[in-house]
Amino acid sequence: MRFLAILIVFFPLAMAFPRLGLHEGYTRLVFDLEKGVQYQISQTPDTLTLRFTGTRPAASDTDVGSPQVASYQVVPTPQGANVFVRLRPSVEVKTFLLEDGSRRRLVVDVLTGSRAPTSPSTAQPRPSPPKPRAQPKVVVLDPGHGGVDPGAVGFVVEKEVTLDLAFRVRRLLEREGVEVVLTRDRDIHLSPDKATDLGLRAEIANSKRNLFVSIHVNSASTPAQGIEVYYFGNTLDPALLAQVIRENGGGEVGRRLTQEAQSVSQRIMSDLIAQSNLMFSRQLAHYVQASLLRATGAVDRGVRQAPFYVLRNARIPAILVEVGFANHPTEGRRLQTEAYRQALAEGLARGILRFLNNGE
Ligand SMILES: [Zn+2]
Questions:
Q1: Keyword annotations for this protein (predicted)?
Q2: Which of 200, 287, 346, 357 is most buried, judged by most C-beta within 10 A?
């Protein structure tokens, strides 16, 4: 199994306030405190507020996009500055103060569930703020296509299979206490214009949600079968690009949206936070692919990167799943059956739950 064992991105910008560290299972904010700086911490379920006096950092508003922290905002005040950290649902906050000599650092760790990093031995424990009320994790399921856009047509019609699968996965996740948001719950398009349609689907995957899964059915001009899971990125494979163009709306529109998505993928190369979100997306993709294969015994077509428009601006882990080929004589007929759809749904749900539970 190929998934990311550990991810550490650390970028100490000169005088950054706070310094940000993204780690597997937690996000760390480090505030360097000059002499005489005082602070207070308070917390509501979705915001951690730090009030500093005696320091004047520059105003900023930063998207973090990690699984624990959506963003933080630094707002200067007459006495100092307030920092508002927007928390994802169901996180735990731990704070401690490190002092060596004249150097003081306030460390804020925002953790998924109960996985705690080990504090440095010099850490002085501070009373931790009240625990946030447990909030359900929220998953966005995007049944591909709909309305005027049937998607792939073969032994099955893509838009019907994706909606049915989304309903099945929703039932399974809700049973586990996970909240599910569907981008559509009927045979509709979100807009007749493909770019708007895909943009609206992606917008539903905002930072208040934990992850996004777009569900699709494949088709191919040469016989092919099996399951593949994508996270965002570029590809040089011409066959894959043809498929991406089709999912991005087909024809001239599909080519244009694919080009737009490709240029986003180039920008992401220099954006560390987007890069780290991609690593989480890759991990989600591997969990989902593995559990789908276990549940169905289908052919493994692998986890890959491609410039799908619907994934291009995701600030939460986001994947696109191709559950099988509508026009393959065996797989297409299998996709017609309740039993196979239920197996697919169980595979999808298990992979998602494993990601939400930190790989357990
Ligand atoms: Zn599709």
A1: Hydrolase
A2: 287
Domain covering 8-125, topology? Immunoglobulin-like (2.60.40)
With bands split at pLDDT 50, 70 and 90, how would you rate the model's confidence at 1? very low
Domain boundaries, the chain: 8-125, 138-356
**173 CB contacts (<8 Å, ≥6 apart)?**
139, 180, 349, 352, 353
Distance (angstroms) between ligand 1 centre and the Cα of 354 equals 25
Task: Copy the structure tokens of residue 279.
Answer: 């690593």
Ligand 1 centroid to Cα of residue 150, in Å, is 9
- Inter-residue contact 309 to 201 (CB < 8 Å): no
Residue 189 near residue 197 (C-beta atoms within 8 A)? yes
Q: How far is the CA of 263 from the centre of ligand 1 (A)?
A: 21
Ion ligand 1, residues whose Cβ is below 5 A away:
144, 151, 216, 247
What is each CA distance from 214 to 24, 63, 90, 120, 330, in whole angstroms? 24, 23, 23, 40, 24
What does DSSP say about strands 47-53 and 38-43: parallel, antiparallel, or unpaired? antiparallel
Contact 333, 153 (CB under 8 A): no
Closest to 72 in 3D by CA, of 264, 207, 265, 274: 207
DSSP 1: -
More confident residue, 276 or 273: 276
CA of residue 216 to ligand 1 center, whole Å? 4
Q: How confident is the model over 40-91, as pLDDT tens digits?
A: 888 888 889 999 988 888 888 787 888 899 888 888 888 888 899 999 888 9
From 3.40.630.40, 3.40.630.30, 1.25.40.80, 3.90.1150.10, which CATH number describes the 138-356 domain?
Answer: 3.40.630.40
